[in-house]
Amino acid sequence: MSEKDYYEVLGCHEEASHEDIKRVYREQALKNHPDKMKDSKQSAEKFHQIQEAWEILGDSDSRRIYDAERKQAQLEAESILLFARITSDELYSKNGSFAYQCRCGSEYIVDKKDLEIYEQLTVACDECTFSIFIEVNKTTNLTSQDSTGT
Ligand SMILES: [Zn+2]
Questions:
Q1: N vs C: which end of the chain shows fewer Cβ within 10 Å?
Q2: What CATH number is given for 6-78 in this structure?
């Protein structure tokens, strides 16, 4: 399943009728048409996403399948046991990576690369069923030192 939310791409409600989706798609396609945009590379990407969303949501069969997968993904996301929601500033450096104390006594280990790539990430504890959700602050100093931190 694609990571993009096609309803978000089109900017319509998940309960929207076929007619509504069609209308929104036409508006978006017109508004984001590469011929009209100055930043053509960005708009081409956006335009492509809109086409892709329409291909899925514009067809009742593929929409039904997509809706089911989307619902499943949402349920899975909700069933993650979150121990904490933190920002990357709250991590401390450890052995070249970053870490956060779990309540079980173990630690969440966060790869430095992940902090560079992602804007948010969920990290599971190796020892228990909890996870943490990290909002990555791009200004965080990623130069890790093997200090015990603050
Ligand atoms: Zn744990």
A1: C
A2: 1.10.287.110
